[in-house]
């Protein structure tokens, strides 16, 4: 399971520019986040990942913003990504000091939402990038939903979008 943080400031959203894990594929712009560690709760994982990748202090992890689940060829289990609304300490401002143990983070910055849509798709369409861009197209204020994908059937669009409320 992978979690991410949706951090807004006015008409911007926080993205991180990162190398892909294992160096396979182009660098990508994503929401700050990553995999849960063994025994870790969702909110603790979101807090840890945001703080590692941005250096910002998380005040609270709030409601679910959106998610995606997909089956990939050759995998027995689906990959589930959940993005939560996060509040960070405003004193942190724009002083990003990543402390990423995986050393994947190139930079973190607040990006206008209209520009963020293009940035997250820059490295190609994946379930994560498509779900994030769809969420951003709805101005980041849509009711939470989870996009469901089966990459054995199609890689360009999800099979469905399921509302959570």
Ranges where pLDDT stays below 50 over 5 or more residues in a row are none
Derived from helix and strand composition plus strand pairing, the structural class reads alpha+beta
Strand composition percent: 35-45%
Distance between the termini: 21 Å
- Return the average pLDDT rounded to an integer: 86
Total number of domains: 1
CATH superfamily: Nucleoside Triphosphate Pyrophosphohydrolase
Q: If you consult CATH, what is the topology?
A: Nucleoside Triphosphate Pyrophosphohydrolase
Mind telling me the CATH class?
Answer: Alpha Beta
Q: How is the main sheet built?
A: 6 strands, mixed
Query: Quick one: overall form?
Result: globular
Per CATH, the architecture is: Alpha-Beta Complex
How many distinct helices? 3
Helicity, in percent?
A: 10-25%
- Count the E strands: 10
**Major sheet strand order:** 5-1-7-6-9-10
